[in-house]
UniProtKB/TrEMBL annotation:
Domain of life: Bacteria
Name of protein: NIPSNAP family containing protein
NIPSNAP domain location: 3-105
Any Pfam family: NIPSNAP
InterPro entries for this protein: Dimeric_a/b-barrel, NIPSNAP
Length: 108
């Protein structure tokens, strides 16, 4: 298993728009494409309270490539993303890391 950690830093005041997009659009499309989320978090204490951090569980790099590419090219995603940004850009930057569990990790 591979875990992908993604951190979205939003433009000021745009975190609610990002969370709405995940809640009403993105997660439904992930289900359609077989993408398994492993948790979503906002920052309580840290460098920015305008961040959304989440994890995706992948079976392999090939699994990620296949499913993420299909999701990114889905016409419903492309149109929905555009609609969600009609009031302006939401995300300032994205950091993505692919992580593998250690031998002693509780999550394998």
């Amino acid at each position: 298993m591979i875990m992908e950690m993604r951190v979205y830093r939003c433009l000021p005041g745009r975190l609610p728009a990002l969370m709405k997009r995940f809640d009403t659009l993105t997660l439904k499309l992930w289900d359609k494409h077989g993408i398994k989320q492993a948790g979503f978090y906002t920052t309580l204490i840290g460098t920015s309270n305008q961040e959304l951090t989440y994890f995706i569980a992948w079976d392999s790099l090939a699994d990620r490539e296949k499913k993420w590419t299909a999701f990114q090219s889905d016409p419903d995603w492309i149109a929905g993303r555009a609609r969600s940004e009609e009031d302006g850009q939401i995300i300032d930057n994205i950091v993505s890391q692919l992580l593998v569990p250690t031998a002693f990790s509780a999550v394998k």
